[in-house]
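Q: What structure does this chain adopt?
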Amino acid sequence: MEPELFDVESPENLTIVAGDVTWKFDSAFLKSNWSCIWGRGCLGIHNEPTEELQQGCCSVGAHMDGEDEARMVSAFAAMIDPELFEFHDEAAAGGVFSDEKRDNTRVVEGACIFLNRPGFAGGAGCALHLAAVAADESPQEWKPSVCWQLPVKVDWVETSATTEVATLRRWSRADWGDEGETMAWCCTEGDRAYVGDSAVIDSLAEELTEILGSEVYVELRRRLSD
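A:
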């Protein structure tokens, strides 16, 4: 059945009711030309701009979305070719998680253990991402969800025993908590990252489809294109 869709509050706030989930959208962001500027002027998330480090938001370990995701990341980490993983030896010796809870990836030399630094022969950036591409697979299947979903954030609220409201929006400085007040984070606030060649609804089509499901994504794109 085609999802029921209607506008609420203003044209910038669309709602799609799909089964037990009511989706609400930050339409202004989805129609914007935001683009990730990692390695292209991103200021990072330290208290001072650190563009030269090319760490982006990887200066902290990635948070796992439960034990299943931790097992997945651990399994894929063991499959990465050492030539694509700068800290392969550290991972082999001490694992990829910060502790036995396996809630977060380790921070090694100031950033996530999976972040290959500029100048690494196998390529700078996320080792999980690079390994997925080398295996001709989607990086979404290899990376922690918080990593491949950024800068998209979904807030879930239960409205009954069987229904939920999910608000899909851009990350904000406030989402970092108290640390966000002082960090140099520039991802979705200001105009530094709004330099893409296409709208987010198209440039992040794969990620949005994974989050929403194909039917909701197609309907959302249709409405935003009208």
